[in-house]
Each structure stands twice: as structure tokens, then as C-alpha cells.
Amino acid sequence: MTSIQTNGRFFNHLQHKNNYDEASRNCMVNTVSHLLHTRTDINKPGMLLGKIQSGKTRTFIGVMGLAYDHGFDAVILLTKGTNALVKQTYARLTQEFEERIEGDDLRVYDIMAMPENLRKYELSQKLAFIVKKETKNLDRIRETFFETYPELAKRKVLFIDDEADYASVAYEHKKDENVTHLRVLATKINALREQLSSSAFLQVTATPYSLYLQPDDMTIHENKVYQPVRPAFTELVPVHNRYVGGETYFDQAEDPDHFASHLYHAVSEKELDAMKKMDRRKIKMDQLLTQKTIPNIRQAVMNFIVGSAIRRFQQRQLGQKEQKYAMIIHTERGKLAHAWQDELIRNMEDRLIEDANKESELLQTLTRDAYDDLIASVQTFSSVPKPSFSEVYQDVLFSLKEEYLISSVVNSEKDVHELLDGRGELQLRAPMNIFIGGQLLDRGVTIRNMIGFFYGRNPRSFQQDTVLQHSRMYGARPLEDMAVTRFYTTPKIYAVMKQIHEFDSELRRAFERGGHEQGVVFIQKEENNRILPCSPNKILLSSLTMIQPHKRMLPVGFQTGYKTYIQPTVKKVDDWVASLKTRAVDEKEGAYLVPATSAREILRAIHSTLEMEEGRDFHLDEYESVLDYLTTENEEGAYVWLVVRKKRQIKRLNGAGKFENSPDTPGSGQGELSIARRVAEDHPAMILLRQEGKKEHGWRGTPFWWPVLVAQQNTTPTVFAKKTVK
């Protein structure tokens, strides 16, 4: 077996240039070792699994360097089908391998812009071909290898499929012909690979869900047959210490003392609808700074301006270079919607500039609101200066008067090409840049210093790969920038993104525990209420629940029913809880083990007393199905640990003005959640909190029960699908 050396001229150059840490270097070494000793192809590729914007490109470039040092002569780098990504990739490769290119050791080519009549001297060097995943590019690379320069077909070639989210090799099923035709792109890539003397295949992705989690059998869906693709090996790309991802936006956001608790701002569905298409009855251009129809987009723009001003003030105070900042508005794919949003934002800019020149009281109020919002998270950092409101206001006035704010639409190849800088990144033309777009902002194109993300893509069925790639707020972010970063979307979309984050995290943990063959269990509820295994490629991500050891499930974002209506039901639950204690089969730390049927009855009664807010869900069938699944895992019988607490006086909104989501105080080991997690080893627990529901706390002046379901420690990571594709 070949030993991987890290002192070759290609990798040594990259190591010196990038100073790879040990974890990154080990990932690169392991990947190349697998590529040399494991058969890989498009049907069974090697896999580099990273996180969104977490350094995957940096890692596969390191793999390229090691591969060149260990016998590979050429790399065919397959990119997503946009000219912008081709340009960005070309700029990145020529920058990373600059010394080797200048030393005539390597040539990098965009396959559609290759010079004619390459000489033997040039062909003798190591080669890198950037090939867009579309028909003309693939035809050109085939022509280059087998017609123009046939000697290349004898070389050892590494395919790297960047942003590989085609989860399976799909076949169209022709009913009238009883034959199947391999998808065109996959066919061309496969044909190219099969004609080469020696090749290896590596996929690089952060969205491998269907790929890893498909069933092993062939399944038919929507006139297509899916042939499962399983990776030959998987290497996890290490997550660097500057990475900000779902852990920040969803896990740390639960802590009211953490800066992340300030990141998310809820947008109403009505406001999102108002931004989709032009309707001058709903939005008056001369009232953009006061109109109630669009409070969040106005706040998003003001927060962006004020956040940029705060950061630039801090940089001046610390003697650092003042940075330029970016904000993204990504709600629709259609160009008509982009044109409408562009008109809206440009008119808002004009109104703000007018008010800055007048130094109006309205602008001062808008600036004050944004300052108060942002300074709450800035104050959680001790390492940065805290500007006063007057200092920030003067900066805002100056920035607006000098027209520091620019908005640009990015929705065509021409637009992106014109907006890219020399590094292939979106060019920040001014200190404050707002980008409006859709598909081309989805993935790949790098946007530096982004501190505002207004997101509203709301498809009927969310696809995990797509939604994750839309998460442009992920990536390497200075924490000082995060203090003034804000993320705007609807509660429904936020909830789906949180579920996807949980899915993503559990999948990565599954690999870390021992590889994808252990995987994750998928289940669904049939019409006859049976819980059955489920095919992953049938799951709708908008109706997914991730179950894992000690995971909590609880309703959040609700109001109680009125006292007259719910009081009898609350009294019934009071009586049930009192009687269950006397009939418990076991007792531990003040928790009572009761039949699961009784827990279901209580849950059903509580459900009828709560009224969910817009975009918030408390699906009874979901909770009952999860409870059924958790209680049937144990051979001893279907039981639930009940942890009861009364006379609670929690407020409806927390200190950050958001719906309370932690009524089950963890405490220092004696809180109800801590107890529930200790007793929930083989059986799940249900925490029942009887709240006083006082009006001064935001409720309707009537007691109610708040349930929290806690999965047991000894449960298999599971995806529960409320709905599946028929």
C-alpha cells in the first residue's frame, strides 16, 4: 500500500501557503489514500462531507495537491452550471497554485476557453480542467481527451464533483418502451470516465442526505426509478473555529444570554407576500419609512445600515481597516419579483437620503430602534468598543448623505459576471451593499462580510439539499460581525430550517460514530396508525421531526384559550394527574411511571386548550405518533415517566421579546428537565407544567398546562415523517 507523503512539491507549496492544521491535513491524506486504494466511480464515489461554506473548497484543493504528488496527472473539476462559479473556481485555483503555475508545473484551464494547439511541453505538465456540469462543457472535455489530445486519455485522472447534490443516478422510465435512459449528464460523465485508462471519482458536498440515506432497493417515484448510490468511503471535512452554522442560529439561539438569541427576526407571511409582486395598493412608495405593511424589510435595511456603521466605528477605534458590508434579500426566483424588490429598496434608499439631508426626527427614531436592537448583542462582547447612540447616528447621517448604500439585482449570468471581483467573489462596490436575487445567490458564489439575510423562499415541499444551500448566513464569520448580524424569515421557514439543522447534525454524528452504514432510521405513520419504516426519498422536509436521545418536543408560540372555554378541560387534567400518581408502576426522583395511553389522553386534552400563533404548529398526530414510537421500543411495555410541576408563573415572551421556549428549567441538576433526562433511560418522559397564566405575564388570566416530551436515552436517532410523497 502506498504511503502518503506530504513533502511533495505541490502539497508542500499549499501547506506553506495555507498552514493547514493537523485535522485538515489528516482529512486530505486519508482522502488521497482512499482514492489510491479504493475503486471509485460515479456510482460509488469517494465522499468529502463538509458543512455549508465551511472550507470544502480549501480541502479539495489540498486533495488535488496531494493527488498530483502521488501519480495523478490531471484533475477534472466539475462545477455547478453557472459562469460565475466557473470564474470563481478558476480564480481560486490559479491563486492557490500560483507558484506551481509560474514554475511550469501546472496548467489550469476553463474547458470552454482553452487555447488551441497545446504543445507537448504544456501537455506534459499537471493539468486542471474546470468543467461546468452541462452538455456543451462535457462534450468539450470528451473531445479534448479523445480527439484533440488522445494522449491525455492514458493519464491518471481524478474527477472532483463539487457541490455534488445529485443524490442518485436517476433513470427516466418510459412506460411505452419498457426501457430506461440514464440521465444525460450522468451518462456523459460515466462515458468519459469509462474510456480513461485510470481514474478516480470524488464528490464534495454538504448536502448528501438522499445519497447516504436511500433504501438499498430500487424504488419508483414520479415516473423515475432511482438506483441507489452509496459512497465507497466518506471523509468529514473538519469544521474550523471561525465557522458559524446551525449550532449558532438554532442551538445557541435558545440561550437568552447568548448573542445568538438576537439573530432571528420573525417575518409575517403577509409581509412576504407583499414583497413577491407589485401591489401599489398595499405598498405606497412615499410612505416606505412609516408604512405598517413592511415593518421587517424596513427594519432589516435600517439594521444593516446601523450595523455597518457600528462595525466601521469599532474598526476606526481599534486602528483597523474599515470593511465593506453586504446584505442579501432572497425571497423569490422570478425576475419580476426582483424588479419589484429593487424598486422598493431603491425608493427606500431615496427616502432615507432625503431624511438624512433634513436630519429628520423620523430618521433619528428609526436609527434609535435599530441601535437598541443591535447594541443588545454588541454588549455581550467585551472585546469591542461600544459606540454611543449619538456617535452611531452621526455615522448613519454621514453614510446616507455620502450615498454609502448601494443595492444591486443579481439574477442573470451577465449580472453576476459584471458584479464579480478579481477573486470571483461578489464585488462590494460601496461600504454598504444590498444584493437582491434568487437562484444565483443560492450557492457557491462567495459574499464577504454579510451581516443581513432576508430569506423567504417558501416552496410547497422543502428539499433538504436546496434549503441548506440557501443558508448564506453560514460560513466563516468574525464574531464581532455576528454581533450586528440579523436573519429575517417566517416562523414556518425558520422551524423547517431548524429541523434540517437537527437532521444535518445527527447525520454527521452518525458518521463520527462509525460511518453511514449505521445511518438514521426513517419512520412514517400509516392511515391505520401503524408506525412503519419509510423510504427517505419519499420524505417531505416540511413535515419532518428528528428524534434523538433526550430531544425535547414542546409547543412554542401560542396563547391559551379563553377561561370560560378551557377551565373544565384544565380541571380534568388536574384530576387525571392526581390520580395517576396513585396508580404509577414506579417512582424515581419524584417522577412517576404511568401507562402511555394515559399520557396520550392528557396530551390530547392539553392540545385543545392552546391556540397557536401564525406560523407555529402543535400537531397532535405528530406528538402522538412520536410518543407511540418511543413507547413501543421497550419490551417491558408502553410507559412514560411523568414529571409534574405546578404554580408556575412564566411569561409568554422572554427578555428578548420572543415567545418563551424554555419553560422546563434545567436548573443545577434539580430542575424538571434534568430530572426528566435522568429518569428517561428506557422510557420517554413527559414534563407537565401547570402555569398560572396571568394577564400581566401576557396570558389570558387562566391556568393552563404546558407539556414537554423528552425522548429516552436509549433510542435510535430517527426521522419521523408526518407526511410522505404518495
Question: How do you describe this structure in short?
Answer:
This protein is α/β, with parallel strands linked by helices and 726 residues long.
Q: What does this 3D model show about the protein?
A:
The structure is a single chain. This protein is an alpha/beta fold and 726 residues long. It has three domains: 9-236, Rossmann fold; 243-491, no CATH class; 521-653 and 668-721, no CATH class. The strands form seven sheets. A seven-stranded parallel beta sheet has the order 3-4-2-5-8-1-11, with helices on both faces. Helix 20 packs antiparallel against helix 21. The protein is globular. The two termini are 48 Å apart.
Number of domains: 3
Distance N to C terminus = 48 Å
Q: Helical proportion?
A: 25-40%
Task: Give the rounded overall mean pLDDT.
Answer: 84
The main sheet comes to: 7 strands, parallel
Strand order of the largest sheet: 3-4-2-5-8-1-11
Quaternary class: single chain
Number of DSSP helical runs: 23
DSSP, total strands: 31
Keywords:
3 domains, Rossmann fold, alpha/beta, 726 residues, globular, 23 helices
Write the layout of secondary structure elements.
Blueprint: H1 9-18, H2 22-37, E1 46-49, H3 56-69, E2 74-79, H4 83-96, H5 98-102, E3 106-110, H6 120-123, E4 126-132, H7 135-148, E5 156-162, E6 169-174, E7 179-182, H8 184-195, E8 198-205, H9 209-213, E9 219-221, E10 224-227, E11 233-236, E12 243-244, H10 246-251, E13 264-266, H11 269-274, H12 295-317, E14 325-330, H13 335-358, H14 361-378, H15 389-401, E15 405-410, H16 413-419, E16 432-437, E17 450-455, H17 464-469, E18 475-476, H18 479-482, E19 486-489, H19 491-514, E20 521-525, E21 531-533, E22 544-547, E23 552-553, E24 558-560, H20 563-582, E25 586-588, E26 591-595, H21 596-607, E27 610-612, H22 620-632, E28 639-648, H23 672-679, E29 685-691, E30 704-710, E31 718-721
Parallel strand pairs: 1-8, 1-11, 2-4, 2-5, 3-4, 5-8, 13-19, 14-16, 14-17, 15-16, 17-19, 20-31, 28-29
Antiparallel strand pairs: 6-7, 6-10, 9-10, 12-18, 20-21, 22-31, 23-30, 24-27, 25-26, 26-28, 29-30
Helix pairs in contact: 1-3, 2-3, 7-8, 12-14, 12-15, 13-15, 14-15, 20-21, 21-22
